Records
---
Amino acid sequence: MAYKTARHASMVLAALLLGACAKGPVASEQPPENPPPGSGTGLTGNQQSDWAAIERLEVQAKAIAKTSGCQASSECRTAPVGNRACGGPRYYIPYCAKTTDSVALFAKLAEVAKAEDEYNRKYQIASTCEFRMPPDVVVAGGSCATK
């Protein structure tokens, strides 16, 4: 019995360590817990128009994320986009930490996540509950990209 408990604990520890090693934003680039006042979600219509509002926020976030300007993969980062109903981002976008205003990017991504969370509750959306890890990033053709 002790063997199984120790084995389970070591598996959990390994999973945590792998998650900690994933290339993602550095601590100073984490999204704010609550978006600034006045950054309403704009979800006031029907399901189709509310999703369109989320997509508009997403387009704004992608415009902030600059992929060019990095010389090495270590200068590239990924940022989480959205908030699935079961938690976690829908996907990640790559960006160059040297040329992207990461504060503005993560503020906009916080708006996207807040709007999607509201959307999921409003329309009782369900999703799968797998944990999506940030993808590896590389410099390809002078731009940061996901593998």
Note: The helical segments are 2-21, 47-64, 102-122.
---
Amino acid sequence: MWKLVAALLIVAALVAGCGSGSGDKGGNAAGTTAQAGTVRLLDPAAYKAAIAGPGAFVVNVHIPYEREIAGTDAFVPYDQVAQHAAELPADKSAPLYIYCRSGRMSALATPELQRLGYTNIVDLKGGMQAWLDAGLTLVDRKSGG
């Protein structure tokens, strides 16, 4: 009986180990919480670390404006992505970091970004609400603070 239990434990460990490797050629940071096709969802700590890197292009897709993450490069309303395509990076394979207030609008913007050819979309899981819950700060460019 103990041999059967040991064998089952080994199989379970092997199966669990198969899903634990990152396998991500895009440099997925620790803290990744989910992956769906070409969209990566990062928790606030991993997202903050990722956008601090060189060449990060950060887009707030939330409407109306409700503050922003420092260093945001563009504001593209989630429902007007195609109309604002000229404001997005020309390199469609470069990481495109998107966020909104809760994650809902960025999820709605994703299919249009993919239709436009963006293949490396990174979304902030939980949006600015999760960012604040993690003790991180937002800035209000419109009111000067």
Note: The first strand starts at residue 32 and ends at 36.
---
Amino acid sequence: MAGYIGSKASVVSSGAERKKTFTITGATTSLTGLNYTVGKVHVFQNGVRLVDGTDYTATNGTTITLTVAAQSGDNVVVISQAAFQVADLPAGTPSINDNGNATAITIDSSENVFVGKTSAGLSTAGVQLDATGSGGFCRAETCLTLSRLSTDGSILDFRKDSTTVGSTGVVGGNDLYIAGGATGIRFDSDVAKIYPTNGTGAVSNGAVDIGEANFRFKDAYLSGGVYLGGTGSANHLDDYESGSFTPTVLFGSNNSGTTYSSLTGGSYTKIGNVVQVTGRVRLSSKGSGAGTVAIAGLPFAANQDGGLGITFIQNTGSYLFQRFLFLTIDITATKAFLRLLNSSGNFENVQEGSITSSFDVIFSGTYKTNS
């Protein structure tokens, strides 16, 4: 009968390979206790390779039958390769091993590789690797952690063929950057700021645009302001708005019974603390009001005394049409008083008695506000 002393298994790049040595103690034709894939087994007797099908038969994966019996003292070596053979690992070792405590890796018939799951699908936790690029890392927490040790630089490179087209990395110790070519952004980890950068995360100044003439972003929502053309306080634009307002005529503190034409209305544009207004007031009836005449309802209060120029004034049958008029705004007020240049060369307030119900004024001008 046959016997053997020692056996060992080794794993090589081409698959699982096992070498088993039989030291023959009596004439025998049967070599048992094997695990091989039919057609992937080699037998050597006393150093001479035997021919499969002529010198031996190997058809069932577990035994080999010699055509001529081996004799006592012969040395027979069987080298076999199997689709899978159990490695000599300690029981309980996590592995692709019958002795392991869990399935570590699954490879399906399409050669997809799974870790932590056994079938494809990005709704199941685990790792899926495949040649189509549809794989991924799935779990209910952080899916992938990339850590660069010690030094600054790229953590993840993006390539087209063999050329790097972008990267994500760390700079300045803890700042994250994302860059493509010579353009990128850097996130300051110490303060709430984002900087333009070059391709390695180094901060750049005045070199990166946001959009261009034919490729614009839509809207920008800012809770603060914009520095235009410089970084000083004089370059800070903190407000821009436009809208409409309804100017009215105020006679002293009373404009009871005053009615207006449908042509009455105004619009404004506010840039920073400068307000540009245009408007028109046309009375249908001036009512029972009396006193100094003012145009009220300006959109913002003035922060200093100033004036608005009248571009056209019409009041049929009245001297108001023929003399120079001016609108002056008192500080903190939202009204402008009508004043005219008298014969002495001084400005005086226009009174209610000087106008008729056909009063029609068109005005425009600029003033400053604290709003």
Note: Confidence is low (pLDDT under 50) at residues 1-14.
---
Amino acid sequence: MCLTIPAQVIRIEENTATVWQHDRAVEVDISMLRDRVQIGDWILYVSTMAVKKIEKKDADEIIDLLVSKPPIDIEGLDKKFVEIIKNSKVRDLTRDEIVYLLKSNSTEEEALYREAEITRKTYIRDFICVHGIIEFSSYCRHNCAYCGLRKDNSVIKRYRMTPGEIVEAAVNSVNVKGYKLLVLQSGEDEFYTTDILVEILKKIKSQCKAFIFISIGDRDFESYKKLREAGASGVLYRFETSNEKLSRQVQDKELSVRFEHLSFMKELKYFIATGSLIGLPGQTIEDLADDLLTLKKMSTTMISIGPFIPCPDTPFSGLVPGAINATLKMISVARLMMKNARIPVTTSLETLDPVNGRRLAMRAGANALMFNLTPEKYCKDYKIYPDRFIEKNSMLEKYALFNSDGSYKMLEKRLMGEINNNQQ
């Protein structure tokens, strides 16, 4: 669902209120709130519909996340930086231009973030998506060098949710909490056959209205076709790095297989979320630029890029994690290159900076949030990396979600439009 926007009521005429939002007046329909709204109240609205009253202190917290910093006058900066920023507004960036931006520092780096945020607000305004994720199995048949779920990690506690538990968690998230987009994620666990996953999807879809993304790794075309027909709308399937040599050091599968899967997923009209890790050992700025060009070439609709975090009991244990500022620059350049893309704030970024990570990413051009909906007895054991940031009962979750058929239709319109654009 979209994050609802806080605003203060300054005028009321029958079922229409004029509200002051950031720096402009907006007219919204307050018929859902009936006689409970008065001038001076704070309300939450989405599109042109008011959905809830809210306390000023809670409104301030959301506003702090959304309000931009003042723009920087880029004309006084390095001429090449200024030229590249101007080029990004009228044409695709070249590899050399992307590398230059990713190497920016100090004032240029801040200016890059501001330009990315301006681009987000210009093309998407405050359309901030709120997604939920259910991690239903920590078993995996692969041995990727960076991942705590790798098959040979005998230290972590493994779990599998039953099909009934998965359905219950999903339906509760939608019908009780108000989520409209869920990700069902696991390690590559063959215990869940295609038939089992199909039944899970059908049961969820029969009991609630929600868009379901699946993140289950490598399955063949026919499996993904059946899952699409059963109700899966999207896939989260990252390629991690576009450098083939680096990929062989990171994961135990051919990079070409990843791209073959992404190709047939697009053919099956999935909404595709993909991306790469930042800060892998041996990775260069040029590699990151190639990752962005790969995402651009694929017309990616959701870009998932986050920092590498070393995990104990893996070959990459004890290495230095990916840098936060490198991740933020990747988000910003991705926003300049793919202006309408959905760019989530990844949990890995929030793990490295639990206090400011979300705000920094939003101000660098991100426009989606992900909350963990895995049942309490399981979520601590999904140890893909250590000390994962898991936020429960978030104020944003409380105020972003609302049960309304209109909210589903709004998301449906956006998602279907993005999927159709991705096919062109």
Note: The CA atoms of residues 209 and 405 lie 8 Å apart.
